[in-house]
Design brief:
The complex is a heterodimer of chains A (362) and B (316).
Chain A lengths: L2 E9 L5 E10 L4 E5 L6 H9 L6 E6 L2 E2 L10 E4 L11 H11 L4 H14 L15 H14 L4 E5 L7 H18 L2 E6 L2 H7 L2 E6 L2 E6 L1 H6 L4 H6 L6 E7 L6 E4 L3 E4 L8 E6 L4 E5 L7 E8 L3 E8 L4 E7 L9 E6 L4 E3 L17
Parallel strand pairs in A: 3-8, 3-9, 6-7, 7-8
Antiparallel strand pairs in A: 1-2, 1-4, 4-5, 9-10, 11-12, 11-14, 12-13, 14-20, 15-19, 16-17, 16-19, 17-18
Chain B lengths: L32 H29 L2 E3 L5 E4 L3 H7 L2 H32 L6 H9 L6 H12 L5 H8 L11 H29 L3 H10 L3 H29 L3 H6 L11 H10 L4 H30 L2
Antiparallel strand pairs in B: 1-2
Helix pairs in contact in B: 1-12, 3-7, 3-9, 7-9, 9-12, 11-12
The chains are: A alpha+beta (362), B mainly alpha (316).
């Protein structure tokens, strides 16, 4: 079942607009992730699809049917909530069976479906426990089992992993992904965690400041972000965004805040622009006071790599990822050079498309 | 000031020096034992004077015959109890009280629950209704009694006016035994409703909304949600309210005194009112004491029963 959103808008009253002009088509069986910083309206959007929040403008369509006015239960979908929404007075088994019983299904059918769903999330042994006797990850699985037991082919998840610790999150991420593929669910997944978005999504929608910033596959979003916000949102550590200028003498030379010159194999696309450099596309080396263009602030050792924080002589702060362990002292002068890839943004932050981006080299 | 040996030695430890003694002992010494009495003393004193002494005195009096000023004269053992439990008059009071208590408890909770459920919905102007429904909390017994006496008044009361308009037979609300019981019950329920409503409203509003949203998505009807989410989620509160209401109903006195004085023909002569009349009208303090002890036992029994029956269902 596919879901189509057309020019969705949400106002809470005349003056507070939360979402504007959201349009997208989610295909059948797709893992679609809505991502954005907190307060960007992503949960609101999900709740509008579910029918829990009224839609101010635009259309939500499931398959061929406009469902704007339909109550949640008529939309044939399931939803997993951030706090799991488990009934504390019911056992695991009864929690999973709740919706099926409410719809007055045949009891043999209910039994089969619930047992099956519990088996799928490996909770069969714990079926008699109450939610309070479960760990966070197990509760999460009960919520998943509930979605599995329902025969709905659309599943909405509202930050389902944000209450779990880092280790468990990785594990559950894989379980959710496997489940979605196995059942062929059309899954719309809301998160503020760019790693979850990157690792699971077929397509990602980035929401920020009421608007859709970009919709694309994880690699499109990472490699060709629509603007500097998207570029900054994806990738850890964050991309470096620095002001740059076309050199007055040579239009193939880019001056980055007067500290750094980058030679391109094609003309610099604008006179004043911002460039984005991923932290591992910078190179950093010790230098004497004369040839240095930056000073190290501090370093963070992460095991397989080290993040070096430095300040360019012009005052811009940058961070660079270096393989392995490097020993820079604070206030040590260094020379920073930009290697291969660059992203160009105009003054408003929108990315400038170069004719043959793949050929750009420093 | 108590001076512990550890506190005198506050010098910081050198880095490689391990702390010698880290164990602190909390054994009470002879001096500390007085603290228990100092802290508990005031409340023990108040409880003794106002609770324990009257309770023991009542138990004591119930085993004697008393004179008109309440002094015990002859020890009679349990004969006060035996004569009470074999007296048709007392048993009728007991029966009347049971009917009243159960009617009041069930109606208060049922109506309170319905009102609280509606008032928990976010509708325009719902605040007005929430205030109105809980308003009887601020009404004193005497005001309520007078207010309802007007309504039940046989010639000018609101209810008799309605009967006249609709050409229905007039009911002697406070003179007919059955009607008097109904009238007293209605008034008590009305009085209790404010408190019950408020407590239940609080409980209903504290049920996480995502539970209902999840149920909505899964296709549960509003009725199903009320029965299978709201009721189980507020069951601890329902339990609490039912015990409070039950005990309060057993102890009803003011309304009875102001509205019917136990009449007509003992139809509303509840146990507490009976105790009062036996002690302060008839001067039979021994019998009144025995009645008090029986009432205490009954309330204790019901509370225990409620715990026994309901505790399995309300704990989650």
């Amino acid at each position: 079942m596919s879901i189509t959103l057309r020019n969705i808008r949400k106002d809470y009253d005349q003056n507070t607009e939360v979402l504007k002009d959201v349009s997208v088509k989610v295909e059948t069986g797709e893992f679609f992730v809505i991502v954005g910083p907190s307060g960007c309206g992503k949960s609101t959007l999900l709740r509008m699809i579910a029918g829990l929040t009224p839609i101010t403008g635009g259309e939500v369509q499931i398959d061929d049917q406009v469902v704007n006015e339909l109550p949640p239960k008529a939309r044939k979908l399931t939803m997993v909530f951030q706090n799991y929404a488990l009934y504390p007075f019911l056992s695991v088994w009864d929690n999973v069976a709740f919706g099926l019983k409410a719809r007055k299904l045949d009891s043999a059918d209910i039994k089969q479906r619930v047992d099956n769903a519990l088996k799928m999330v490996s909770l069969t042994k714990l079926r008699k426990r109450k939610p309070r006797e479960l760990s966070g990850g197990q509760r999460q699985r009960v919520a998943l089992a509930r979605a599995v037991a329902s025969d709905a082919k659309i599943c909405l998840m509202d930050e389902p992993l944000s209450n779990l610790d880092a280790q468990l999150r990785i594990k559950m991420r894989q379980e959710i992904y496997a489940l979605q593929r196995k059942l062929g669910l059309t899954l719309i997944y809301v998160t503020h965690d760019q790693v979850e978005a990157m690792t699971m999504a077929d397509h990602i929608m980035v929401l920020h400041d009421k608007h859709v910033q970009q919709i694309g596959t994880p690699s499109e979003i990472y490699q060709t972000p629509a603007n500097d916000f998207v570029a900054k949102f994806f990738g850890t550590p964050q991309i470096n965004i620095l002001p740059a200028k076309r050199s007055a003498d040579n239009d193939h030379i880019l001056n980055v805040s007067s500290d750094l010159e980058i030679a391109l194999n094609q003309p610099v696309p604008a006179e004043n622009l911002k460039i984005g450099v991923r932290p591992d596309d910078f190179k950093i080396e010790r230098a004497d006071g004369v040839s240095s263009n930056a000073v190290v602030k501090n370093t963070e050792f992460l095991g397989n790599e080290t993040i070096v924080y430095a300040t360019m002589n012009s005052g811009s702060d940058i961070h660079v990822v270096v393989d392995g362990q490097v020993a820079f002292r604070s206030y040590e002068p260094v020379k920073v050079t930009a290697s291969s890839k660059l992203l160009f943004f105009d003054q408003n932050g929108n990315r400038i498309n170069l004719a043959k981006e793949a050929l750009v080299h420093a | 000031m108590l001076k512990s040996p550890a506190s005198s030695q506050t010098k910081p430890l050198a880095v490689n020096q391990t702390k010698q003694r880290t164990k602190t002992t909390f054994a009470l010494n002879a001096k500390d034992k007085y603290y228990a009495w100092i802290f508990l003393g005031p409340s023990l004193l108040i409880l003794s004077v106002f609770i324990f002494y009257p309770m023991i005195k009542t138990l004591y009096l119930s085993l004697f015959l008393t004179n008109t000023v309440g002094k015990p004269t002859v020890f009679v053992g349990l004969s006060n109890y035996i004569s009470l439990l074999t007296s048709a008059d007392y048993l009728s009071s007991l029966g009347v009280t049971m009917v009243y208590v159960f009617a009041v408890t069930i109606l208060t909770i049922a109506i309170g629950l319905v009102l609280a459920n509606y008032a928990s919905k976010e509708l325009a102007g719902i605040g007005i209704f929430r205030t109105l429904f809980s308003a009887t909390m601020g009404v004193s017994v005497s005001v309520a009694a007078i207010f309802w006496l007007f309504i039940f008044n046989p010639s000018t009361g609101f209810l008799s006016l309605i009967s006249t308009w609709l050409h229905l037979p007039q009911i002697g609300w406070l003179t007919d035994p059955t009607a008097a019981m109904i009238a007293v019950t209605i008034t008590t329920v009305w009085m209790n409703l404010g408190f019950t409503f408020l407590i239940l409203l609080g409980a209903i509003q504290s049920v996480p909304t995502t539970l209902y949203e999840a149920a909505n998505v899964e296709g549960a009807s509003p009725r199903y949600q009320f029965l299978h989410i709201t009721i189980p989620m507020i069951s601890p509160t329902l339990f609490f309210v039912s015990i409070i209401t039950l005990i309060e109903a057993f102890k009803s006195f003011g309304l009875i005194d102001l509205m019917t004085k136990g009449g007509p023909t003992n139809a509303t002569n509840m146990l507490v009112y009976r105790i009062y009349k036996d002690a302060f009208y008839s001067g039979n303090f021994a019998q009144a004491s025995a009645e008090s002890i029986i009432l205490t036992a009954i309330i204790a029994l019901f509370t225990w029963l409620q715990f026994k029956i309901l505790e399995k269902r309300v704990n989650y």
